[in-house]
Amino acid sequence: MSTHTESHSHGGPKIYTANLFALLFLTIITVAAASFNFGSANVVIALAIATVKATLVALFFMHLVWDKPVNSIIAIAGFLFLGIFLMFDFIDVTSRNNYLPRNMPNMENATPAPDSMNPLRTAPPRPLEPAPAVPAVKEEHK
Amino acid sequence: MSTSTTDVHAHGGHGEHGEHNPYHQHHFATMEQQFDTSKLGMWLFIVTEILLFGGLFVGFGLMQHRYPGEFIEAHEHLKQDVFGNAFPLYGAINTIVLLVSSWTMVMGVNAAQTSQQKKTVRYLVATILLACVFLAIKYVEYSHKFHDGLLPGIFYAHQSEDLIKGTHGYATFFAFYFMMTGLHGIHVLVGIGLLSWLVMRARRGDFNSQYYTPVDLVGLYWHVVDMIWIYLFPLYYLIS
Q1: Residue B200 contacts by C-beta under 8 Å, 6 or more apart in sequence?
Q2: How far apart are CA B143 and CA A54, in angstroms?
Q3: The CATH number of B30-238 is which of 3.30.1490.110, 1.10.10.60, 1.25.40.10, 1.20.120.80?
Q4: Quick check: A1 and B44 CB within 8 A?
Q5: Domain boundaries of chain A, sorted by first residue
Q6: From CA B163, how far away is CA B64, in angstroms rounded?
Q7: Where do the domains of chain B lie?
Q8: Which of A56, A118, B116, B129 has CA 20 to 30 A from B154's CA?
């Protein structure tokens, strides 16, 4: 059986092992990078490294490099739609409070609406009360 | 794959595998076509998995935007290991365990492709063991969180500043944490089931260079589980 050496255009143990070490190396880098404070860039760095790792997994462990292109097209389409999802979400979140209607009257002297009516604000702190005590019901059928 | 039919003729003696493979279904012209069709279907399923977790990641991002302060505090809490150090020990070990299990999986696929039955079984069993290690670490981590009352939703009972302030950032963070890692954990469990089935079939000698579709497809599934963890790890354990 072992003489059945196929000249596959496939990877092979060497490439897989090299890929594993690359992934482990990137894991160390991502842990190390998180211990420095780059401000808001930390998220970007962590996600960029994660994306490199995911790409390595997809290309070599999932054989996309050697596969028929149709599988790569499907995979890329999946991530593309995920990207659209994330992008619109990002646009929404970052611009929620920036735009008000053009014909809005001057609100400077108006009484502000209570926060509870404003969906853009987080809900005001809800006091934590214990659940109302249930009045003891007389047991009559005894 | 692309060599499957030509290979058969090149090796003469193996001819009967190609022409009358017991796994060759009649509605496919060749074994190669059958394999490619299965793989295409698997990739479509993988896309649905990516979008399923994608929705959860978007939800997590939205809530992080809403409760930035509490989320950072909760990150710090999650990071703590058994010794109380601010190093994401559980998460880091689990990342390594899953990466190595991805490697054993791909080696198993490679062994199946080259008709090395014993090796296939060994690598698949190794993958199962690593998956069990992953879940064991997850169990330790979860019980630690359960003990602190950091349960999702209405079960949340952590006594902290957060509760006194009455905001929901902490609880929201841990709700997302349990839902996302929990869903991922369920995927690992399903993977263990699939791998056990593969071990059974591999021991029976079902797989060889002409037919290894199930090994390959479960391999793809397993790598997706790994890939999702690659994103979960920095988002939950590293960013602060």
Answers
A1: none
A2: 29
A3: 1.20.120.80
A4: no
A5: 11-64, 68-99
A6: 18
A7: 30-238
A8: A118
Nearest by CB: A24 against B54, B99, B166: B99
List, for residues B147-185, the tens digit of each pLDDT value. Answer: 877 777 777 766 665 555 556 778 888 889 999 999 999
The 10s digit of each residue's pLDDT in B207-228 is 999 899 999 999 999 999 999 9
Rounded-to-integer distance, Cα B217 and Cα B1, Å? 13
Distances in Å between the Cα of B81 and the Cα atoms of A35, A136, B137 are 16, 46, 11
- Residue of B54, B35, B53 whose CA lies nearest to B43: B35
CB B163, CB A130: distance < 8 Å: no
CB-CB neighbors (< 8 A) of A39 in chain B: none
Cα of A112 to nearest chain B Cα, Å: 21
Sequence-ordered list of residues with C-beta below 8 angstroms from that of B185, at least 6 positions apart, any chain: B135, B138
> Alpha-carbon distance A66 to A46, whole Å?
28
List chain A residues with CB under 8 Å of B3. Answer: 6-9
Please tell me what DSSP assigns to residue A9: S
pTM of the model as a whole: 0.79
The answer, yes or no, to whether ipTM is higher than 0.85 is no
